[in-house]
Each structure stands twice: as structure tokens, then as C-alpha cells.
Design brief:
heterotrimer; A mainly alpha (about 650); B alpha+beta (about 325); C mainly alpha (about 200); B: about 325 residues; alpha+beta; Immunoglobulin-like; 3 domains; five-stranded mixed β-sheet; three-stranded mixed β-sheet; 12 strands; about 20% strand; C: about 200 residues; mainly alpha
Chain lengths: ~650, ~325, ~200
């Protein structure tokens, strides 16, 4: 297939598109951009910053735990460390990094010029950044959240936790939830409306399936934790009795609401990353994914079942065994779609022709780590066995195998894969292979022993442990492994910095990959596609060689839509073009709104109602300006084929 | 088979013997035995699955293929899809088996068909354990802390409450975990099949000194248990000339109780018969006179954040009160 | 064969039909807010199921104010519907402005009456778990009504400025929000006032 516009690219259209779509220069443009690619990169960079912060917190803990009875870190500081580590990784890194990938890639994968709501996209980033800063506001005061990322009552009620710590937590969660919800809505609507003609649902890349599933789930899950945090904030400040036993409150209400959110959330953290692997691994096996339909269905099935297992976090609470058994059974069932996906990936490698480049190493490593994390999850799904395993380091091992194995490893592989598209440079391959092996060895050395030390009874969330329990050697190994893994992360950062400056320059498709983003220059121009593609298969750039069908995607001519800032709207299932959608230009409203929301939450944190009122007023004014319709004008229909 | 697992387990120090006091794969009671079998079974299945997948991955990557050509792969995926569905089907069978075994184990462990021979009310506090032994004869009930003596071979019902936040009562070698939740009374059962000292540990983050909230279940023969109970009921006698006791009444009685004295403090652990306990501070230190002296003067160094302040008494007072407490056997 | 002729020569500029991005966006907002109320009602039911004794502890709440209040809110949905239809069919800006004003007044009366009901309750926010969930459930709903009043006010301003109609969907979407708030109230009303009487 000829690359688009190999001869005589239409200069006039290109210039007009560039002028309409390019972000304004300078500070104004930096604050006001609505370009999904710039927002995506911001998400990824900010998420990596928080990954490092969370990693430093982890290394501090590993130093304290390297030997028995160390007293390098006080129990109060340790509690803040393990809480901030989890909050940072689970809320400020794991989902945002995937939002970053999806933000950058979705319009390119789908054949569109931007997301459905570009200003909302910018808003979701600014709110995330402000909420992240808000979470860390307690750190310099020594009042960071200190009761884990799950903040069980009554430990987090006012009598047992009078300081600001838990107020930072409850308000921070509600604050961050705004970003998650608007971001999720953006993905859902983009999928339904903003695709290239012909990009029907059975041609969507699996990353799109994964992020879509996670986004729908977030819309339904986030309100549970926002409500729980709001109730806790009320208990703490207005002496209500949601959770206070003496007033008729129920301790377990917190856990039900929290885990009703928490469990779907952890699937939202891994399903898009599994989609990264499902899309990128086949490129390095020189063949399409085996069992596309099965993998797409298993993605949705996992999320659906994921709403029905939350009580497996509450197996030791004394609930009736009959109820617990239902949730245990559901927790076993959820492994079935995962098994399908694992076999699909292995089959892709088996029937393909693997190229052992760095991304492939991360994806193959991911499959193994997925399975290890999966079987430890299988063991904890058993309600009876969980009565021994829960709250031990076995769980710590499980969560790190699933979170690093199923989020970090695909993310790093995805960075090696898409770095050329993001930046126009290729990451150094030799350093990349070193990075993989250091990370892989370090990760397994750090976390595999935790299975064992959990099986011999080491509890979690302890700032130290006595000698003579059998824990010592394993903990030392874990601490060493953690530092090795951190070194691997450092290698990755070095590779990124060096390659940005002097890495090999990339053409449009350095990996010879099949999907639409590889038909654009690297990095893509602000308008993504000179002509909106017309899609004929799942693998537009491989059609000539796969010969699965006679149909061919059209990338080199067609619909320019170069008057004004526009993209095509399509029907939801079959992606038939049905409208021309106008996109907004640069705007300062998102960052202003985010700052106003920050003022509201900061005011609530220190119970300064004037600040809250002022912030709320600015919020309302900004919303009014944002939604005010422009003068109703313009034609009812537009010419699209010129 | 059991002995082989025990041998491997011991080799990996999973065996719950001296090397791993909290190791539940080395069970010492009927409930723990059911869970340990299940644990070994699922662990072995898990290990086999991982090895199979590792082997498939290596083979998939390393297998010989015809020489390189530039065509892309693909084509007849029907066979591959059949393998995927077959693999998923086989996994489903394994999952079904594990689920059935799990449900059986859960029912067995929670089924209280044999009546309990003893009931103890345990209340979790930040960061120690209160235990009140129940009896049909109310005059034979008593309170102790951090150490539960039980008779061998007798099912013991433990009623679980919390004084403050959520804790978890866990004696790994005897039974699984059950939370103590404010406002709720949970129930669990423990039974030891052989004499021994079984360590317990709080297993729900409950604040600063969660890491130091251990307890011990001491299983002894029936007659020794009866003798122990009788001794627990013996009250201390008031000795006005005993300096240690005076120090105790002055400095400690506000929070600690000793049966027979006017010391009736309920904020801290009951210290009647403290001298016979194996540890100080819910497992923080071994119970020796030197350690007790250190504990009294340096509580906040041993267990920073504990509700007991470091008392920093003059050394003669410390010596006398230590002496007194250690004689409360 | 996929080629350019697949795409019609001209296409509607978006916003006219039902399935615009804004329409789906409002649907997402309504979905997530609806689930919030579902979790609130779950909490109400859970606290009730776990509390020994009668629920509500002071007996079924009086409908003396809540009953008429409910009717007022339902009528407001009809006045809004009338105004929207009048505008869509006859382009009558006057009818729309009147309808928006009347709806706004009815909504404000709803809020005021509910405030009176709150004041007359035999318990306060910090009394017990029932009072906590009662005030929070009705209060979160009231907050949504207040936000709806702001939306109605904005629509009123925009209608006077002549900015509604054409390809803008603000009126339709704002009306959806108001109808959503009304529908939620029906569910809340049944939960709090009718279910205890069953």
C-alpha cells in the first residue's frame, strides 16, 4: 500500500489544516492547548513523575524492612509512606498513564482528528494534576494520609485520626474522581461518535476495547468511593453517624462502598494495558492477533464479572459463609476470560514469527507475570484459603505481580513501541534490552520472595518484624530486588532523555505495524490525518500482504474537512459517516476551572468557607462561559467531498 | 503425601515449626489442617500452571520455523482458536474443582457441629488483646490479656469484639482469620491437637503499633489447664509493706488491674498473674525482669505510640515493682 | 470496496440530530449521577437492615409537606416539556421564556418546602444513622435540583439572547437534566416515604 500522499501532497489543504489545528505558541498555548496528543504526553509525564515518587516511598520502606527490628523510620512516618505509596501508584500513576496512552493514541487509532470533547480532555488533565498536588499537600506538614489507600473506618474516624491526614484523603479522592469521570465520559463518547468511516466495532484495536470497558466501568464505580469519602468527611466534621457505631452507624458500610469501587478500579488499571499488549505484541510476531473476537469479548466479560466480586476483599469480616461463597465462586469465574486472553497471546507468538526487540521482551515477560499474578489471585479467590492468606505478604506479592506485571511492563513495552510516534525518535535498542533484563530480574527478586514470606505468615502493613520468624532472608532479598528494579527504571529514564536528544529519527512506520497511527508522520501533525481515512479492515497497513479481503482502506485521498476545525462523526456500530463535528480551539477555561475546583477543595480541607464560596462562584461562572452557545449560525449541511 | 509436604514445607521453612511460628502450612489443629491441605493443593496447581505457561512461552518463542520470508503470518487460525478454547475449557474444569474444594473447606471449618468445650470473649484494643474466660458459674469467670491458655483437643469458641478500631484475630497454625469489628460480635473456633505455644498476630492495620500486636495461644493437657484456671482465680493479697505493690498501686493501677487489689484500671491489659506470661506488651519483649524494667522506663522506645507512657521511675521503684509483678504467677 | 464514494457528498453539521456528542455526554453524566443515587439508596437500605429496631427509628416520615412537594416537582417537568415543545414546533421564544420561568419558580418552591421539612424534623443531622442518610440522600438530591435551577436560569438568559435553537442542543440537554432530577426524586420519595409504610 502506498503511504499517503507519496507524490504531490495537497499543500493548500495541509497549510489550512495546520493553521486551524496547531496550538498557539508560548505560555498561552501551553495553558490553553486542547490537542489530545499534547494532553496525552502530559498525562504520561505527570504519571511517570508520580511513579518515581511512589517508587522512592517504596524504597524507603524496603530499607526499613531489610532486616528485623530496624527503627530507621518511625511507625507514624511508615504509615504515611505505605499509604502514599499505594495512593500514588494506584490513583496517580496507574490509571493516568493509561489515560495518557489512550489520549494520544485513540484519535489516531480510530482515524479521527481529536477526542469528542477536547476542552473536557484538557480539564481532566488539569484536575488530575491539581488533585495529585492536593494529595501531596499533607506531606510537608507530616500529615499525609496514614491509614492505607483503603482508609478503613473507624481508624479513619475523628477520634482515632484527628489530624488533617484523612481529610486530605477523602477530599483528594472526590477531587480526583472528577478527572476520572469526565475523562471516562470523553472516551465513551469519542468511541461512539468520532471514528473514521469504516472503523466498525469489529475493527477496533484492543486498546480501544480495553479503555472503553474501563471508562464505562469508571462511570459506574467512581461514585461509590466518592460517596464513601463524602460520608466519612461528614462523620469527621459534622458528627454524623454513617460509620459511628454509638450512633447506629455501620463499620462495614465503608468497606462495601469502597470495594464496590475498588475492585472494578483495579480492572480499569489493567484492561487497557492488556489492550496495549494485544495490539503491539502481534506486530512483533509479524501476524495479526489470534482470536481477536475472543479477546475483545473477554475484556468486556472480565469487567462485567469484576462488578460482582468486591466482597472477596472482606472474606475475614465475619459475613455469612453462604454470601462469601457466592463471591468466592465469582472470583474463580473471573479467571476464565483471563485464561482466554493468555492463550490468545501465546498462540499469537506460537503461530507468528517473533522478533525479539525490546517491546517484545516486555510483552512476553508480561504474559508470564500475568499468569503468576493470576494464580496467586486464584489462590486468594478461595474464601477458605483466603482466611489464611489475606492481610499477609502473599497479597502484597499478588497485587504487585498484577499491577507491575499487568500495568508497568506493558506500559514500558508500549513506550518503546510508540516512542517513535510520540516523539519522532527511536529509543536505543541495546539499552532497552538491558533495561528489560534489569527490570525483570529486579522485579522478580523483589516480589517473588513475598509469596513465600506471606505463606509463612508475615502480615502486611507492619513497619518492622521480630527476628526468629523466618522472615529475614526473604525481606533482604526483596529489598535488594527493589533497588535493582529501581535501577532498571533509571535506565529507562536515561534512554528516554538521551534518545530525545540524539536518538535515531523515525519514519512513519519503523515497526512495519498495521494500524492507522502508523500512516501518519512521526510525530503526527496537529491535525493527525491530512485526509480522514476510510477503513476497510482491522489492519489497514497490512491489507496488501494479508490479502484477507479485496477491500482496501483509503488513506491517500478523500475527505479533507480543511475549512474550520472539524472531524467526521459516524454511527456507533458500523461507522458510517453521518455528520461533521466542529471542534473547539485553544481555551483557558479548562485550567481556570481546574484551579477554581482546587480552591473549593483547599477551602474544604482547612474548613474555610469563604474560599469554598469563592471557588464555587468561579466554577459556576466558568461553566457558564464554557457552555454558552455561540451565535447560532453556519450552514445546516457541509460539503465534505471536494 | 502429607509427610512429603511437611518435609518440603519444613525445608522451605514453610512448615510452621520453630523456624516459622506463623506458618499456617504447618497446621496444629483441625481447622488449620483443612485450610493447609487446600493451601498446598492450590499452591501446587498454581505452580504447575506457571510452569506450563512458561514452557509454552519458551517453546512458542524458540520453536523452529521455516526460513525467513517477508510475508505476514495469519491464515488458518481455526486450529489455534480450538487450542485457546480447549485451554480455557481445561482451566474452567480446574477452577470448578478448586471452587468445590473451597466451598467444602469453608463449610467444614465454620460448621460448629460439636459443642465448644470452652468460650472466651476476646476484645481487641489498640494494641493488645483482652480475654475474658466464660463459665456457667459466673464466679469462675476472669479476665486476662495477650495470652490464651486452652486445653488440648477441645474446641474453643472465641467471641470477638473490638474496643476501638478493626483488628483481626489470627492464630495461623490453629485457624483462619476473623476480624474484630466495633459494634459487631464475630465468632470463631480454635482447637489445638497437640500441646504447644501458638503465636497469634493482629492482621488488620489498626494504627501505629499494629506491627507489635501479637498474642499467644498456649495449649496444655486438660489437667494442667484446670490447674491454670484455678490459679487465675486466686486473688492477690494486699501487702501494705510491699514497696513494689505500693508503686504498682500508685503508678499503674489507673490503667491496669490486678484481681484482689484496688487496682481496677481497664485501659490497659489486666496484669493479674502477669509473672506467668511469656511476653510483655503483646509480644513486644520476652518476659524477663531485665526486659520488664526496660519496658517500664522506655515504653515509647520499644513500642512508640503505645498508649502507655514511658514511666521513667527512680531505679529502686522500678526494681521493686518489677520484682512484684514477676512474682504474680 | 471502501472508497471515497462511501461518504455522502455533504453531511449535516452536528448537533441537529439526537445522537450528537453532547447528547451522549449528557447521557454519561446522567448515568454516573444515577448510579450515585443508587449507592445512596443502597446505603439507606444497608443501614436500615443492620439497625435493630424500627427503621426509620421515629416512624415513617410525614408526607404532609413531601407529598405536595413531589407534585410540584412533577408539574415542573411538564411545564418545561410544554415550553420545549412550543419552542421546537412554533419557535415561540415567549412561550419558552415563560415555561423556563415557571419551571424555575416551581423548582425553587420545591427547595423551599424541603427546607421547611428539614427544619421541622424531630432529629438533627448528627442524631443517628437514619438522620445522617436521610439528610444526605435528600440533600444530595436537593443539590442536584439547585444545579438544575442554575441550568434553567442559564437557558432563560440564552433564550432571551436568541442563542438557542439551530444546531445547538442546550435546551434539549438541559431539559434532560431536569427530567432526570425529577425521575430520581420519584425513586427517592418512594424509598424514604412509601417503603416504610408497606
Amino acid at each position: 500500500m502506498a503511504m499517503p500522499f507519496a507524490e504531490s501532497p495537497p499543500a493548500r489543504e495541509r497549510d489550512r489544516l495546520l493553521e486551524t489545528w496547531e496550538t498557539a505558541p508560548g505560555l498561552y498555548g501551553w495553558l490553553a492547548t486542547v490537542d489530545h496528543k499534547r494532553i496525552g504526553i502530559r498525562y504520561m509525564c505527570t504519571a511517570f513523575f508520580f511513579l518515581i515518587a511512589g517508587g522512592v516511598e517504596a524504597l524507603a520502606m524496603r530499607v526499613q524492612l531489610a532486616e528485623a527490628n530496624l527503627h530507621l523510620i518511625s511507625p507514624d512516618a511508615y504509615a504515611q509512606l505505605f499509604s502514599m505509596h499505594a495512593i500514588t501508584m494506584i490513583f496517580l500513576y496507574a490509571l493516568p498513564v493509561l489515560s495518557g496512552f489512550s489520549n494520544f493514541l485513540w484519535p489516531l487509532l480510530l482515524g479521527s482528528r481529536d477526542m469528542a470533547f477536547p476542552r473536557v480532555n484538557a480539564l481532566s488533565y488539569w484536575v488530575y494534576l491539581c488533585a495529585g498536588v492536593f494529595f501531596y499537600a499533607g506531606v510537608p506538614l507530616g500529615r499525609a494520609p496514614n491509614a492505607g489507600w483503603f482508609s478503613f473506618v473507624p481508624l479513619t474516624s475523628k477520634p482515632y485520626n484527628p489530624g488533617l491526614n484523612i481529610d486530605v484523603f477523602t477530599l483528594g479522592i472526590i477531587f480526583l474522581g472528577i478527572s476520572t469521570v469526565v475523562g471516562s465520559a470523553n472516551f465513551v463518547v469519542t468511541l461512539l461518535r468520532c471514528r473514521a468511516p469504516g472503523m466498525s466495532v469489529n475493527r477496533l484495536p484492543i486498546l480501544v476495547w480495553g479503555t472503553l470497558t474501563a471508562s464505562v466501568a469508571n462511570l459506574f464505580a467512581v461514585p461509590a468511593v466518592s460517596l464513601a469519602c463524602f460520608m466519612l468527611w461528614l462523620d469527621r466534621h459534622f458528627s454524623t453517624n454513617f460509620f459511628t457505631v454509638s450512633g447506629g452507624g455501620q463499620t462495614l458500610l465503608w468497606q462495601h462502598l469502597f470495594w464496590a469501587f475498588g475492585h472494578p478500579w483495579v480492572y480499569a488499571l489493567v484492561l487497557p494495558a492488556m489492550g496495549i499488549v494485544s495490539d503491539a505484541l502481534p506486530v512483533f510476531c509479524r501476524r495479526p492477533l489470534v482470536g481477536y473476537t475472543l479477546v475483545a469479548i473477554s475484556t468486556v466479560a472480565t469487567m462485567l464479572i469484576g462488578f460482582g466480586v468486591w466482597v472477596h476483599h472482606m472474606f475475614a469480616t465475619g459475613l455469612p459463609v453462604v454470601a462469601l461463597s457466592f463471591f468466592s465462586a465469582a472470583s474463580f469465574v473471573i479467571a476464565i476470560p483471563s485464561a482466554i486472553a493468555v492463550f490468545a497471546w501465546i498462540a499469537t507468538i506460537w503461530t507468528g514469527r517473533p522478533r525479539f526487540d525490546t517491546p517484545f521482551l516486555f510483552f512476553a515477560g508480561f504474559v508470564l507475570l500475568f499468569v503468576i499474578g493470576g494464580v496467586s489471585g486464584f489462590m486468594t479467590a478461595s474464601v477458605a484459603l483466603d482466611w489464611q492468606l489475606t492481610q499477609t505478604y502473599f497479597i502484597v506479592a499478588h497485587i504487585h505481580y498484577v499491577l507491575l506485571g499487568m500495568n508497568v511492563f506493558p506500559v514500558v513495552g508500549g513506550i518503546y513501541y510508540w516512542f517513535p510516534k510520540f516523539t519522532g525518535r527511536i529509543l536505543d535498542e541495546r539499552l532497552g534490552k538491558w533495561t528489560f533484563w534489569v527490570m525483570f530480574v529486579g522485579f522478580n527478586l523483589a516480589f517473588f520472595p513475598m509469596h513465600i514470606v506471606g505463606l509463612i505468615g508475615m502480615p502486611r502493613r507492619v513497619y518492622t518484624y521480630p527476628a526468629g520468624m523466618g522472615f529475614d532472608g526473604y525481606n533482604l532479598a526483596s529489598s535488594i530486588g527493589a533497588f535493582i528494579f529501581a535501577f532498571g527504571t533509571l535506565l529507562l529514564l536515561i534512554n528516554i532523555v538521551r534518545s530525545l536528544q540524539s536518538g535515531e529519527r523515525a519514519g512513519p512506520n519503523p515497526w512495519d505495524a498495521p494500524t492507522l497511527e502508523w500512516s501518519t508522520p512521526s510525530p503526527p501533525p496537529p491535525y493527525n490525518f491530512l485526509a480522514i481515512p476510510i477503513v476497510a479492515s482491522r489492519h489497514p497497513l497490512w491489507e496488501d500482504r494479508l490479502k484477507e479481503t479485496d477491500e482496501r482502506s483509503v488513506l491517500a485521498s478523500g475527505v479533507f474537512l480543511d475549512e474550520g476545525k472539524k472531524t467526521l462523526g459516524v454511527t456507533a456500530l458500523d461507522a458510517e459517516a453521518d455528520a461533521v463535528i466542529s471542534m473547539p480551539g485553544d481555551s483557558l477555561l479548562p485550567v481556570i476551572l481546574a484551579l477554581a475546583i482546587s480552591l473549593v477543595f483547599a477551602g474544604m480541607l482547612v474548613t474555610n468557607w469563604w474560599a469554598v464560596g469563592l471557588g464555587a462562584a468561579v466554577v459556576l461562572i466558568t461553566l457558564f462561559l464554557w457552555t454558552t452557545p455561540v451565535v447560532a449560525s453556519g450552514p445546516e449541511r457541509e460539503e465534505v467531498r471536494g | 503425601m502429607k509427610r512429603l509436604c511437611a518435609a518440603i514445607g519444613a525445608a522451605l521453612s514453610l512448615g510452621g515449626c520453630e523456624a516459622a511460628p506463623l506458618g499456617y502450612l504447618g497446621p496444629a489443629g483441625p481447622a488449620a489442617r483443612v485450610l493447609a491441605s487446600l493451601g498446598w493443593g492450590l499452591l501446587i496447581i498454581s505452580a504447575v500452571v506457571c510452569l506450563i505457561v512458561l514452557a509454552l512461552l519458551i517453546f512458542a518463542m524458540a520453536r523452529r520455523r521455516p526460513p525467513e520470508d517477508s510475508t505476514l503470518g495469519g491464515g488458518n487460525d481455526r486450529a489455534a482458536i480450538r487450542w485457546i478454547i480447549g485451554g480455557a475449557g481445561f482451566s474452567t474444569l480446574v477452577l470448578l474443582g478448586a471452587a468445590i474444594w473451597t466451598l467444602w473447606a469453608a463449610q467444614t471449618v465454620t460448621n460448629a457441629s460439636t459443642p465448644a468445650g470452652l468460650t472466651i470473649d476476646v476484645t481487641g484494643h489498640q494494641w493488645w488483646w483482652e480475654a475474658r474466660y466464660q463459665s456457667d458459674d459466673r464466679s469462675r469467670e476472669f479476665t486476662t490479656a495477650d495470652e490464651l491458655v486452652i486445653p488440648v483437643g477441645v474446641p474453643v469458641q472465641v467471641n470477638l469484639r473490638s474496643n476501638d478500631v478493626i483488628h483481626t484475630f489470627w492464630v495461623p497454625r490453629l485457624a483462619g482469620k476473623t476480624d474484630t469489628i466495633p459494634g459487631v460480635t464475630n465468632r470463631t473456633r480454635i482447637q489445638a491437637d497437640k500441646p504447644g505455644i501458638y503465636r497469634g498476630q493482629c492482621s488488620e492495620y489498626c494504627g501505629l503499633e499494629h506491627a507489635h500486636m501479637a498474642f499467644f495461644v498456649v495449649a496444655v493437657a486438660r489437667d494442667r489447664f484446670n490447674a491454670w484456671w484455678d490459679r487465675q482465680l486466686q486473688a492477690a493479697t494486699y501487702e501494705p509493706s510491699n514497696q513494689g505493690q505500693q508503686v504498682f498501686l500508685d503508678k499503674c493501677a489507673a490503667c491496669h488491674a490486678v484481681r484482689g487489689l484496688s487496682a481496677g484500671g481497664i485501659l490497659g491489659p489486666d496484669l493479674s498473674h502477669f509473672g506467668s506470661r511469656k511476653t510483655i506488651g503483646a509480644g513486644a519483649l520476652e518476659n524477663t525482669p531485665e526486659n520488664l524494667a526496660y519496658w517500664i522506663d522506655h515504653t515509647q522506645i520499644v513500642k512508640p505510640g503505645a498508649k502507655m507512657p514511658s514511666l521513667d521511675l527512680p531505679s529502686d521503684q522500678v526494681k521493686s515493682v518489677v520484682d512484684y509483678l514477676e512474682r504474680l504467677k | 470496496m471502501a472508497d471515497v464514494s462511501y461518504i455522502p457528498a455533504n453531511l449535516p453539521t452536528e448537533g441537529r440530530g439526537l445522537r450528537s456528542t453532547g447528547w451522549w455526554g449528557m447521557l454519561c453524566l446522567i448515568a454516573t449521577e444515577a448510579i450515585l443515587f443508587a449507592y445512596l439508596i443502597f446505603s439507606y437500605a444497608y443501614l436500615g437492615a443492620q439497625t435493630p429496631g424500627p427503621w426509620p427509628p421515629t416512624g415513617p416520615p410525614s408526607m404532609r409537606l413531601a407529598g405536595p412537594d413531589t407534585i410540584i416537582l412533577l408539574v415542573s417537568s411538564f411545564t418545561l416539556l410544554w415550553g420545549v415543545l412550543a419552542f421546537e414546533r412554533r419557535r415561540s421564544r415567549v412561550a419558552l421564556a415563560i415555561a423556563l420561568a415557571v419551571t424555575w419558580i416551581l423548582g425553587a418552591i420545591f427547595v423551599a418546602i424541603q427546607g421547611l421539612e428539614w427544619r421541622d424534623k424531630p432529629f438533627s443531622f448528627d442524631s443517628n444513622s437514619y438522620s445522617a442518610i436521610y439528610f444526605t440522600l435528600t440533600g444530595v438530591h436537593m443539590a442536584h435540583v439547585v444545579f438544575g435551577l442554575l441550568i434553567l436560569a442559564a437557558l432563560f438568559v440564552w433564550s432571551l439572547m436568541g442563542r438557542l435553537g439551530g444546531r445547538h442542543q442546550h435546551l434539549t440537554l438541559g431539559a434532560y437534566y431536569w427530567h432526570f432530577v425529577d425521575t430520581v426524586w420519584i425513586v427517592v420519595f418512594i424509598t424514604i416515604y412509601l417503603v416504610p409504610r408497606l
